[in-house]
Amino acid sequence: MKLAVVGATGLVGQEILKVLEEREVEFDELYLVASAKSVGQKITFKKKEYTIIGMEAAVELAADVAIFSAGGNTSLEWAPRFAEKGTIVIDNSSAWRMDPNKKLVVPEINGNAIESTDKIIANPNCSTIQMVLALAPLHAAYKIKRIVVSTYQSVTGTGKDAVQQMMEERSGITNGIKVYPHKIDMNALPHIDSFLDNGYTKEEMKMVNETRKILNDQTIGVTSTTVRIPTIGGHSEAVNVEFVHDFDLKEVRSLLEAAPGVIVQDDVKNNVYPMPINSHGRDEVFVGRLRRDESQANTLNLWIVSDNLRKGAATNAVQIAEFLMEKSLVY
């Protein structure tokens, strides 16, 4: 199999390479692709040196699979060109997620929806992935009526420059790089992506629309507030979910413990609960603080944490590639 990683020099691209190595994904050829300014750079992967190539060259090589992490505009322009060459594109941007003709995939939930005719497959938003992975088994058991979610998201979700801004501020540099409209260190910004006419941000509406699409249920009510906080290594979410049917808390715990890719950490007597510092570098979604909402019936509170660069982006994309190979959709 010929595999291309597009955006190989970025945070997610670098994480994809780590995940490919850790999961021992087999391929015959690897093409590392980036923007023109990075062409010619060298990257060592599994003790072999690779030279970064540009988009035009990568298209002509006709890889079997290309994992894109290069931004929405790049994906809109180049993913169709790769697909025309027969390459299956797994795209990490928001470009194709809500396209009715493109699958939006979390393999543990809806991987079986992928067909041989799917040439562009969308990877969901990081904050959506971790939430739906935890909620999918509960939706199957009790049917979700409404979700209220507030997120606490790492600066790594914005990219390398955001991490640099935070670290410069932490070091006392006042005239350094500026990615956010305000200081991020020692602060919390209720502002992720741009604001829309309805007062919500694009990030908040991603969680609304993507959740419904992945769970294949347009009746689910979702409202979201997304917040950027000065952490590195993971996103956290406070989720309040109302079900159509009542639930037993012990059964909820059992369902989550049995869910693939989910780890329950919920022992408050011993101060055990998910934290982003412990999710860093991990592929799992961690769930804790399980408790009934005592203000209304059939409603559960839970706390969900995951490394946004791993399951929230790189790992999920690599898992889609693995799924394609397992189902013999690529060779």
Your description of this structure?
- By secondary structure, the chain is α/β, with parallel strands linked by helices.
- The protein folds into two domains: 2-124 and 313-326, Rossmann fold; 127-308, Dihydrodipicolinate Reductase, domain 2.
- It is built from ten helices and 14 strands.
- The strands form three sheets. A six-stranded parallel β-sheet has the order 2-1-5-6-8-7, with helices on both faces.
- α9 links the parallel β12 and β13 (285-292).
- α1 crosses α10 (310-326) and α5 (126-142) packs across α10 (310-326).
- The longest helix has 17 residues, at 126-142.
- It is globular and about 60 Å long.
- The model has no long low-confidence stretch (mean pLDDT 96).
Features:
single chain, 331 residues, Dihydrodipicolinate Reductase, domain 2, alpha/beta, 33% helix, Rossmann fold, 6-stranded mixed sheet, 6-stranded parallel sheet
Describe the protein's topology.
Blueprint: E1 2-6, H1 11-22, E2 29-33, E3 42-45, E4 48-51, H2 55-61, E5 65-68, H3 72-84, E6 88-91, E7 103-104, H4 107-110, E8 120-122, H5 126-142, E9 144-153, H6 160-170, H7 202-214, E10 221-228, E11 235-243, H8 249-258, E12 262-264, H9 276-279, E13 285-292, E14 299-306, H10 310-326
Parallel strand pairs: 1-2, 1-5, 5-6, 6-8, 7-8, 9-10, 12-13
Antiparallel strand pairs: 3-4, 9-11, 11-14, 13-14
Beta-strand percent range:
15-25%
Straight-line distance between termini: 6 Å
**Helix share bin:** 25-40%
Q: Could you give the count of β-strands?
A: 14
Contiguous uncertain segments of 5+ residues: none
Topology as a string of helices (H) and strands (E): EHEEEHEHEEHEHEHHEEHEHEEH
Q: Helix segment count?
A: 10
How many separate structural domains? 2
Cα shape:
globular
Query: CATH homologous superfamily of the largest domain, by name?
Result: Dihydrodipicolinate Reductase, domain 2
How confident is the prediction overall: mean pLDDT? Answer: 96
Based on secondary structure, the structural category is: alpha/beta
CATH class of the largest domain: Alpha Beta
CATH topology of the largest domain: Dihydrodipicolinate Reductase, domain 2
Please tell me the CATH architecture of the largest domain by its name.
2-Layer Sandwich
